[in-house]
Amino acid sequence: MPEFIRNDISLTYEIHDEGYPVLLFAPGGMRSSISIWTSGSEWNPITEYVG
After folding, report:
1. Does residue 18 contact residue 5 with C-beta atoms inside 8 Å?
2. Is 3 helix (H, G, I), strand (E, B) or coil?
3. pLDDT of residue 51
4. Is 48 a domain residue?
5. Within 10 A of 24 (CB to CB), how many other CB atoms are there?
6. Among residues 19, 10, 20, 22, which one has the least CA distance to residue 46?
7. Is 7 left (phi over 0), alpha (psi -120 to 50) or beta?
8. 50 domain residue, yes or no
9. Is 38 helix (H, G, I), strand (E, B) or coil?
10. How confident is the model over 1-50, as pLDDT tens digits?
11. Backbone torsions φ then ψ of 5, nearest 5 degrees
12. Three-state secondary structure along 16-31?
């Protein structure tokens, strides 16, 4: 999985499809996870924007 590292901060990210980039932050604050959208969220922006 791609990862962005700057100083002591590390962010992993996923790329879905092609086109104009949209940056989405998963809910959950510091413990955010993309899996929150697939298991327990009313709305999944990945399937809405990519699907």
Report:
1. no
2. strand
3. 62
4. yes
5. 13
6. 22
7. left
8. yes
9. helix
10. 789 999 998 888 888 888 888 887 776 666 677 777 777 778 888 888 87
11. -125, 130
12. CCCCCCCCCCCCCHHH
